[in-house]
User: What shape does this take?
Amino acid sequence: METYSTAQKQRLIELNADGAIINQKFETVEERNAFFKKAEKRLIKENKEKLNKFIEEERLPLTLSIEDSLEKWLIQKEAFSRVATPVIISADKVRKMNIDHDNHLREQIFWLDGRKCLRPMLAPNLYEVMRDMYRVTRRPIRIFEAGSCFRKESQGARHMNEFTMLNLVELAGVKNGEQMERLEVLARGAMEALEIEDYKLVRETSGVYIETLDIEVDGVEIASGAYGPHPLDANWGIFEPWVGIGFGLERIAMVKGGYQTIKHIGKSIAYVNGISLKL
Ligand code: ATP
Ligand code: MG
Assistant: This one.
C-alpha cells in the first residue's frame, strides 16, 4: 500500500484538504501520483473560489470575527471594559509571575535584552491595571484585553510563536468560594456568544490554591481559566478575589473553521483567512 509522500502531504495540508484525503492509500505509486495531481488541482480551484468570496463578501477573517463576537458579548452583556497594554514588558513582570522558577514558560520567552521581553501572556499587565483601577474606584473591576502574545514553541499544529489571546479578568466582583462557579458562567457565556455547542469544561487542581478551568473542543484546549486568592497575588498587591480566562483566538478559529493547522488561521503572509496564497 502506498501513502502520499511527505512533500505531497504537506502540499495537501497547505491547501487544507480533509484528513480523509491526506490519509488515502493506493495500490501503486503511479496511482497515488495521479490522485495527487487531481486532488491538488481541485483544491487550488476551491482555494481560489474562497479567496474571491472573501474579497467580495466576507472581508473579515474568522479570527477577527471571533474577537468581535467576544468583545460584543463582554462589553454589551457583561459590562467589561476593554484595555490595551504594551507588548514589550519588563523582566521584573516576568519575575513576579514566577515564570523564571519551575515553569515551562521559562524557556519560551523571547528576550529583547536582559531587561525586556515580548509578553508570553496578558496576565502581568492585567494584574497591574486591574489592581490600580480597583484602588482608584473601589468598585468591582471587569476588564479584558485582546492582543498578541509570544512564546518560543516547538511548533506543531496547535502552537505558534505569535498568537492572539483574549484575556478577561474580574476583580472584587466575585465572593470567595464562588470563583469556580463564576468561571463556569463566563466560560458558558463565551461559548454561547461564539455559537459553539460541543465543548467540555475541564477542572484541574494543582497545589493547594491553584484550580484551573479549561475549555476544550474536540480535545483541543481553546481557553484556560484561573482564579484568586492565588499565591502570586501578593507580588502584585492584590488582596481581593478575582477570576480570569485566557482565550486563544486562533485555536477557536481552528476548531470552528475546521482548519488542519493553526498556521492556516493565525497571523500570516502565506494565508488569508485560512486560504493558501500559494496557488
Ligand atoms: P497548551 O497547553 O495548549 O500549550 P497553555 O496551557 O500553555 O496551552 P495558556 O497559558 O493556558 O496555554 O494560554 C491560554 C490559551 O492561549 C490556551 O488555552 C490556548 O488556547 C492559547 N495558546 C497558548 N499557547 C499558544 C500558542 N503557542 N499558539 C496558539 N495558541 C496558544
Ligand atoms: Mg492552559
